[in-house]
Write a structure and sequence with these properties.
Elements: H1 3-15, H2 29-32, H3 44-53, E1 57-58, H4 62-71, E2 76-79, H5 89-92, E3 96-98, E4 111-115, E5 118-120, E6 125-129, E7 144-149, E8 154-155, H6 158-163, E9 171-174, E10 179-180, E11 188-189, E12 196-201
Parallel strand pairs: 1-12, 2-3, 2-4, 4-7, 5-8, 7-12
Antiparallel strand pairs: 5-6, 6-9, 10-11
């Protein structure tokens, strides 16, 4: 076997799914949880405070979401299949909503509405899973990303959320808008993803 074949063989071996997953480490919440970020013990108010601290936009009604989209002149976007039934008619008025994304015309989507698996109060994080979000591009490409989270799907802390990781092949934790400070240490939002990250518990 020559060097090239040996290298590609090693790559193929590394990409082969494991027959048996390694067990997650045991985590002691007392060592990992930040009590100062949970002044109300892991409530939506804790989530709101921590989410807004990283420039996330927390909303409590579809009326507020309508105002945000109108103010941004965002009239065309994507909504996960099945979510349209959960969006009030008054909210949908004046909007063009697609249930599939045309990757060749990605710039036409001013916003994407996806279903989040859960939220984490301690860190102000929303959790997206491939099983819940049919097109991950909807959470990455539009300038405005809106997550709808069931009110009962709130973890108090990061340790609880890790315990719930499950078997989904891809889980993304989103904490506020996309950020980078790679160039000159200057923080810029919206470079690698949405510039406006919205969370609306329903």
């Amino acid at each position: 076997m020559n060097d090239r074949a040996r290298i590609f063989s090693a790559i193929n071996d590394a990409l082969t799914p494991l027959q048996e997953r390694a067990a997650l480490p045991e985590l002691d919440p007392a060592q990992w949880v930040c009590p100062s970020r949970l002044t109300e013990g892991g409530s939506w108010e804790d989530f709101r405070r921590n989410f807004e601290a990283v420039n996330g936009t927390f909303l409590t009604s579809f009326e507020a979401l309508s105002r945000l989209l109108r103010d941004a002149n965002a009239t065309e976007g994507y909504a996960d299949p099945g979510l349209l039934e959960e969006l009030p008619e008054t909210f949908r008025d004046g909007l063009t909503l697609h249930e599939t994304i045309d990757r060749g015309s990605i710039d036409r989507y001013a916003f994407g509405i996806t279903r989040a698996h859960a939220a984490i109060a301690e860190s102000g994080t929303v959790i997206l899973r491939d099983l819940d979000t049919p097109d991950r591009l909807a959470a990455l490409a539009p300038w405005i990303h809106i997550t709808l989270v069931a009110k009962e799907a709130l973890f108090s802390n990061v340790t609880e959320a890790i315990d719930d990781l499950g078997e989904d092949p891809n889980t993304v934790w989103v904490t506020g808008p996309s950020k980078t400070a790679d160039v000159e240490g200057i923080l810029i939002e919206g470079v690698h993803g949405p510039g406006i990250q919205v969370c609306l518990p329903i």
